[in-house]
Design a protein that fits this description.
This protein has 205 residues and is an all-alpha fold. The chain has one domain. The chain contains ten helices and no strands. The N and C termini lie far apart (45 Å).
Length: 205
Amino acid sequence: MIVATILISAYLLGSIPSAVWLGKWLYGVDVREHGSRNSGATNTFRVLGKPLGFAVLLLDISKGFLAVQATYWIIPEGMSYVLLDVFAGLCCVLGHIYSVFVSFKGGKGVATSLGVYLALNPYTVLVCLAVFLAVFLTTRYVSLASILAALCIPWISYFLFQQFEPITIFFNVAISALVVFSHRKNIQRLIKGSEPKMNFSKSKA
């Protein structure tokens, strides 16, 4: 029962649509009606500017971190939390992408995945951030940087950190696949050359 409670709670935590709720509360703006119409941090930066963009980014990262970290706090003494932290993280990312609070149309899962890995393996985050920054600073495409960083996760874990456990491999591949799949429309726009670049300027929405 406690396992089911933790996993459901992780999903609900991930489902909290920070961008949508804060945008409506502070500005009276639904980010899903502007910009890329996505309820994530990147679109919040574009539509409502840096302050709220960073706030949403930090909140989305915190969701992933807390979903994993909470398993260490909640599990009764003597009960193993092996695997539970991994699946709690996965449920949280699923919640962010398929949020029950916004008709299962949430964000891309990048920031929340970052929070999950901060709790599970911070070193993976450092390498992925290096990849992200290298691609972003070169191209100014947040989507491309996110996709390539996500694709690096399984390889970094396996070859660099030598994490050969089947469940770890499954988790890394699942997170990578979820993030890439959530960017499918961005991939289409990148191919067509119509994907917008990030300039961090506030929209007049």
